[in-house]
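input
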Amino acid sequence: MLTCEIEKALIKLAKKRKTITYSQLALCINKKSAEKLPERGNALGSVLSKYLHILCENYVRNGKPMIGSLVVSKKTGMPSEGFFRFAQKLYKIDLKNDDQKKIFWQNELKRVFKEFGD
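output
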């Protein structure tokens, strides 16, 4: 199942305190899985975000940080707008501007690294 493969890959990254781009994650998963992800474009974002939302929701429900915060855009080095919209829904918060989004993401990233640190 792709959700499990994505989770395994993200946990490995978290232990190394690293992020990964959406397309790099798709390539990584496609090397290991019979099920394939689109490797670029809008299709990649749509499909991958579905799996990341499932993972993040499960993590937050269990008192853990959003593991999807490790997945970032090539262009910005931060997660997509969809990540922030979903974070607002999960945490019932309002991120009003880019500065608030960046601070939220950096804090969530630290929590992920702490959760999986050796």
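quick obs: Residues 42 and 48 are 10 Å apart (CA to CA).
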